[in-house]
Amino acid sequence: MLALIDTHHHFYDPAAHYYPWLNDAGVPPHRYGDHSALKRPYLPADYLRDTAGIDLVGSVHVEAEWDPKDPVGELRFIASLREQSGLPSVAVGQAWLHQPDAPSTLEQLAAFDFVRGVRQKPRANAAPGGPPGGMTDAAWLQGYARLEPLGLHYELQTPWWHLHEAARVAAKFPHTPIVINHAGVPSDRSEEGLRAWRTALAGMAAHPHVAIKISGIGEAGYQWRPDANRRVVLEVIELFGVDRCMFGSNYPVDSLCASYQSIFENFASYVAGFSAQERAQLFVENARRIYRIAP
Question: Residue 245 belongs to what H/E stretch?
């Protein structure tokens, strides 16, 4: 059995805390469609049940879109879960880089010894074209400049049509690591859509301090499609190389698409022809290095 560090999952409790996407009525639709099944607590006990049979050796909690008025509160909650269960190994916090309070927020997040980076989904267009996105804003760039001195990396989740803006950010800040979430979000699986996605990802892959998580590759309106997702996985690895790719479950969100075991059995089958060392890099070693997870 392959060991695994899961580089992308979420813990949350909408019964005790405020998450707009889980608590509010009339929120924008989820990219997978109806997400009402997710509007319940998802805590370490639930995660351990879902990962039963997986040789889990570490995990990364990624901010779960907690109340944006109190991003530090989420990490206090995660700290309490770590004390109770030992999970997650490390975490990625929420930070709104364009806000005036970003410097204080980043300093408070960096003070948690298990926080490795921050995520904020920058302002983006709903489709290709349109005005520039949030990564071009001067205030956002000022906030981004504060990451490196604090030892934080940036977790990037944005549609592929904004990756050219991210590539300019990567060039401007070559010492701030970037981890792309969800394989660059290849939501359009047409040939034209996949070509455009691959071209955009190639621009990011040209920067050696950019890594990528192969996670969250489900599709709206479908259960997990093994053949369609095989192409995405293998093209990402081809672009970034084995030493800059990692696997993540995006659980419980991707429970809308497949079981945990099914997702990772598929990931394992896609790379079955790789060497044992390459598989170890993809499933454990890259995550251990990039997220600084002790054995």
Answer: strand 245-247
Q: Which helix (H) or strand (E) holds 260?
A: helix 260-270
Angle between helices 260-270 and 226-240 (to 10 degrees): 60
CA–CA gap between residue 236 and residue 215 (Å, rounded): 11
Domain for residue 145, yes or no? yes
Instruction: Report the chain's terminal Cα–Cα distance, integer Å.
Output: 18
Q: Which domain holds residue 95?
A: 3-290
The alpha helices in 13-162, defined as continuous H runs, are 20-23, 44-50, 71-85, 102-110, 138-144
111 to 106, 292, 293: CA distances (angstroms): 9, 16, 17
Which helix or strand (DSSP H or E) is residue 62 part of? strand 55-62
Q: Cα–Cα distance between 287 and 59 in angstroms, integer? A: 9
* Domain presence at residue 295: no
Two tokens at 57?
């050796």
Mind listing the pLDDT tens digit for each residue in 93-124? Answer: 999 999 999 999 999 999 999 999 999 999 99
Nearest to 159 by CA among 190, 192, 193, 118: 193
* One-letter amino acid of 265: E
Flag whether pLDDT at 1 surpasses 80: no
pTM equals 0.97
